[in-house]
Amino acid sequence: MKNQHHSTAGAGDIAMAELLDLDAEVLHTYLSDVTAWLEELAGDRPPRRILDLGSGTGTGTFALLKRFERADATTLDISPHMLRLLGDRARGLGMADRVRAVQVDLDAAWPALDTVDLVWAASSLHHMADPDHVLTEAFAALRPGGLLVVVEMDFFPRFLPDDVGLGHPGLEARCHAALIAGQSDDWGPHLSRAGFTIEAERPFAIDLRPPFPASIGRYAQVSLQRVRSNLDGRMSADDLATLDTLINGDGPEGVLRRDDLTVRTTRTVWVARRP
Ligand SMILES: C[S@@+](CC[C@H](N)C(=O)[O-])C[C@H]1O[C@@H](n2cnc3c(N)ncnc32)[C@H](O)[C@@H]1O
């Protein structure tokens, strides 16, 4: 595996990498549903060369490589830390020879790339300063007839019951209402503008109930911490204090020890083809 990156990780990258890995662990069934659907759409020409844009720690990369056993992948990300973890995971899975990780700022000029059959961009386009530039480059990287897959989260996962037992019923709903402004985007017009034909747009509703993997409490904690970091000044001091107790409390009310968690979220997947 070729890693073109160095330097140390920032706190933001470390926290994000943990969240991405937990996401992959807890939501793996949904990812498997997405790749099974892609296998159907690809028909008698399954992808051999895959490009993962903003790959993070490789959640999408490895799900695709497991589904398409004869494929290899180039993963592009701006973060050396993410790519380092992705490399470790590739070695752990015995897939190192199928992955090439390249550090690149997708908003800048792209390196020369081989033509690919499938481009995957999960939860990454909304991070770009200029997503239309990224889509134009993705179009150029694809062979005619190749597929671009864009995945975006409609809203942060929800974990809590309406009444968390600490007063203030409806807390999580209020958090999400405070965050919702400007969060979701319709990528269809962006894809059309870049020259793609849209094949499908499909929501994947996720509604997980116990039994959960042991990491569920930590997943809820890290996710809610991320939600919390965007809420200062947007909610009452009482609500924020209750949220802090849920996130950090080490008693039975804290998410690490609660036995009433669920996971509810929706991801939308757009599949577009280069004509
Ligand atoms: C929310 S993560 C998604 C990671 C992965 N696709 C997944 O679904 O687990 C977004 C990723 O985009 C990367 N990223 C953000 N801006 C970028 C840029 N300008 N160029 C390349 N990668 C970028 C981040 O480093 C991060 O790994």
TrEMBL record:
Chain coiled-coil ranges: none
InterPro entries for the chain: Methyltransf_25, SAM-dependent_MTases_sf
Classification via Gene3D superfamilies: Vaccinia Virus protein VP39
Pfam families in the cross-refs: Methyltransf_25
Any one GO MF annotation of this record: methyltransferase activity
Domain Methyltransferase: start-end pairs: 50-146
Presence of keyword Mitochondrion: no
Name of the protein in its database record: Methyltransferase domain-containing protein
Species for this entry: Streptosporangium subroseum
